[in-house]
Structure formats: C-alpha cells, structure tokens
Amino acid sequence: MCGIIGFIGARPAQPVLIDGLQRMEYRGYDSAGVAIQNGRGLRVRKRRGRVRELADHLSANPIEGHMGIAHTRWATHGPPTSGNAHPHLDCTGEIAVVHNGIIENADTLRTLLRDRGHTFLTPTDTEVLAHLIEDAEGETLEEQVRAALRLVEGAYGIAVMSGEFRDRIVVARQGSPVLLGLGEGETFVASDPAAVVEHTRSVIYLEDGDIAVLSPEGYRVLDREGNDPGRPTDSIHWDVEAIELGGY
C-alpha cells in the first residue's frame, strides 16, 4: 500500500517528510521519494528500496526548504524502480505529484496528452496526472488541479506542488483517504494518521470531491462546487503504536 506525507511550515521539511515515510513503512512499499521547494524550484530525490536508503542519500545531500511532499510506493503501473517512484513530474519539471489510487482512464489520457506534445518517461498513471495538470488551464495551481481532475476517472488521493506557485500545496481526494494535520504555524497532509501523530493530533479528514490548499498562512478546504464544506476538526486519540499496527 502507498503512503503520502506533505508539510508546509517554518521548520525544515526534509526531516519531517522522512519521519512521516518511516512511520508508514508498516503499510508495505518498494520505493520512496520526496520533492522539496527550496525557494529556487523543486528538488526531487527518489530511491528504490527502503526509506532508509532515501534518508541516507538525503543526509549526505540535504535539500533545504520548508515545504514538500513525499511518498512510499507499492508498484501497480510499472515495475518497482527509482524512475517509477513518486513524486512524478510534468514535461517542464515544474509540477510534482504524489498519488495513491488508480486512474482508470490513464491510457486514454496519456494518448490525448501525447497528441498534444507531451513526452512520458514512465508507464505510471501518476505521471499522467502531472502532465494533465500541466496541460490544464488556470491562473492558480488550485484551478489547474481542479480542471485536470474533471477529466480523471478512478480513485485518487493526491498532493501537488509547483515551481511556479512556490508557496502552495494542493491536495485532493476521491476514493482514497487523505487527511490534513493542523499544527502550530504548520500544516501537514497525509494518507495515514501515523505519519502526523508525532506532530499533531488535530486533523481534518477530507471527503470525496474535496480539494484543500495549504499555504504558509494555513489551509482552506473546498468541495466540488468550490464552496467551504465545513469539514470538522477531529482529534487522534490512539497512540503511535496502535496506529502503526492498525492503520485506518
């Protein structure tokens, strides 16, 4: 099973992301990767194998920055390789996506995008999402993501970053669990509460059709129609060991 963790705040993102990935290792995976915004653009690192291998690489080659997304992958589309690991990028390398779920019309969308000049590096359905967002019209990253997802069939929990919109993480859910973790001056996104419980026990569980936008100022959640659905804030009452054993 795959795992998503994302962070935006004042402290360095790299250790938060690696810690989150390690706390989701119980779910099983074959590769891991991170994308961090360092103020000059996105920096992406991916490794096949254990999170420890990615952590060791980043310890020797750290990425500075205060926002990022990360993922552990269990191969579905394409073999377990570093190239197929998430995050996936668009043609420009400016849009990074991590994704849980399966895009059922990925092949159709890939053909459409190739006809429009897009070049793909992997057989993954997640890379299709990155190119679809690149291709979508919108004045903000949120608008691009919303427009792209109108064409998507299937299940997804995604987190998206952009080199152009450097202070935003956009999150969406349809059929795959996603939560927001609310800290003091920082916000998390995760597919599993185990990834955030060491940092906060205050969470919002997104529902199908929701899109959330994380920024240094906080977060906002919108439904399919672009309205505030008033999602309640919940509290995680389990301890870390129980979460890691049971998931949610």
Could you characterize the architecture of this molecule?
The protein is of the alpha+beta class and 248 residues long. The protein has a single domain (3-246), classed as Glutamine Phosphoribosylpyrophosphate, subunit 1, domain 1 (4-Layer Sandwich). It is 23% helix and 29% strand. It is built from six helices and 14 strands. It has an eight-stranded antiparallel beta sheet with strand order 3-2-4-1-10-9-11-14, covered by helices on one side. It has a six-stranded antiparallel beta sheet with strand order 5-6-7-8-12-13, covered by helices on one side. Helix 1 (13-23) packs antiparallel against helix 2 and helix 4 packs across helix 5. The relative contact order is 0.16.
Binned, the helix content reads 10-25%
Low-confidence residue ranges? none
Rounded radius of gyration (Å): 16 Å
Largest sheet: 8 strands, antiparallel
**What best-fitting shape do the alpha-carbon axes yield?**
globular
In percent, how much strand structure appears in the residues? 25-35%
Task: List the topology elements.
Layout: E1 3-8, H1 13-23, E2 31-37, E3 42-48, H2 51-60, E4 67-73, E5 88-89, E6 95-100, H3 106-115, H4 125-135, H5 141-149, E7 156-162, E8 169-174, E9 179-182, E10 187-190, E11 202-205, E12 211-215, E13 218-222, E14 234-235, H6 240-246
Antiparallel strand pairs: 1-4, 1-10, 2-3, 2-4, 5-6, 6-7, 7-8, 8-12, 9-10, 9-11, 11-14, 12-13
Helix pairs in contact: 1-2, 3-4, 4-5
